[in-house]
Amino acid sequence: MREVPPVEDLGEGLWSIPVPVPHNPIGFTYVYALESPGGPVLVDTGWNHDDSWDALVDGLRQAGHRVDEVRGAVVTHFHADHSGLTGRLREASGAWIAMHPADAEVLRRQEGRTDDERAASVIEQMVRAGFPEQDVEAFRASPTVFRPPAPPDASLGDGQRVDVPGLELRAVWTPGHTPGHLCLHLAGRDLLFTGDHVLPRITPHVGQFPLDSAEGDPLGDFLASQNRIGRLPGADRLLCLPSHETRFSGLAERAREIVDHHEERLELMVRLVGQGPTTLWELTSRLEWRRSWADMRPLARHMAASETAAHLRLLEERGLVAREGPAHRPRWASVIPGTTPRI
Question: Which segments constitute the Metallo-beta-lactamase domain (predicted)?
């Protein structure tokens, strides 16, 4: 577990509040608080846990505010370590919650589904991806499923100004990590809240859901978003405030590094698929991951498969691989068997 850093005064009414994510290797998520005449506005809220809530309340206290004074919160994306406390915050303060409409739609589709239904959906995807029976049964015995947070009550689109009096804070839509991921540009102070889109050392998860979907192109969206964010006016003057790790500068260079990382991954997958048709599970299990494949729990393997699926989906879009076989157990093959096309 990573050590949670202290609350920091970043100057001119901006505070960094690390909110822990208990029992999770993520460690913590930075929540940022911006002072405004009507009360502080937050960037993200943190994980839904009593320890996380206590850290947020205490961090606001150190910044000179009570939680019931919070005016609103902009959620960079719907993932639980960023949006988990939205409902509790709104109940305590009456704060508005803003999110890009694409992520709000993801939450809307999850409404009304039971945990059993969500788990069944994951199991079905694992079977179609070619996961062995022991992985499927291990997940079935101890499922971990996504429980959606409270829905937002305000929509924030690309380029739209956030309701923070006296500050020129605007949304920059950066889809990929999620369909509605937002970065936030604080003009006049050369600051960019990057959420999970650009992190200084690691690359965020970009997955395809459902795993064998032939619709959408999350990795293609993500790479386009990296190129776009790297071309923001004055990009290399910006101080980037991510949700994890540390603050950094050199945005354009970091965005290029992230794109290059995925292009290398795509080239590797083309070579592997060129050796013969493969199921999603077979290809995923042959790749290198931060944790060894043998040590991964079934849910972690499912997440790895979703990332592989996103790469395959982009390769399909580029015309380098194609799916074949029955719909209930697709395989991917090189468009020209035995060759490794250049990307």
Answer: 28-244
